[in-house]
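Below sits our specimen:

——
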Amino acid sequence: MLRDQGAWCRLEQQDTFTVHVGWDQYLYVGSDRPCEAAVARTRELGLFAEPITASPYAADLEAPEVTPAADEDFWEQVRAELAAPQTLLLEEAYLRNATRWHRLTENNLDTVRAALGPRALLTVWPDLTPDVDAVLDALPEDESVDFVWETPNGTIRHVTIDESDHQRLTTLVAGARAACSLPLALDERHPLFHVALPGVGGAGRSPDADGLRLPWVNQ
């Protein structure tokens, strides 16, 4: 998690010990004991352990996510879009910071739907463009984006890049069939749909399902 190379989760042992990894690579450690020896050892190792009252990634401090349900009306809307005819790009976030990507067509919609993970967040985007060079040329020079592409064997891959990665990206996506770039800023993201799948047995999605950088939290 510290290297942004996998799913994001909260590590917690009931109310006795917690470890939260933040987006800025700070590590928030919480304990029901003072742990003076651990704090002292941490400082001996050259790290800065500072006491705070609570982790900003504590579940009870987060505002609940309100996301429309992926009900039958939603799937009918998707089917109508595909009947144009066209292809759509589906982002399946089955855990926070862990995604799978699918290209939807009328023919594969039911197959893809059946394989989606319970309680996943689904975001539907316009399809990838076959002019990969044009997508590369249009990458912004001063901001990070999600770059999504279809490999020669049909696999959909994505990577988060900034302006320093453009040259390496060109090599990475050589031979790609199609691609697109998606903004990271929430106010710049405009998908066609954004919904949440129900859980097993119909349970809805909760922020706590997504599970979680070195200030010390003394609870």
Observations:
- The chain has two domains: 11-63+209-218, 86-203.
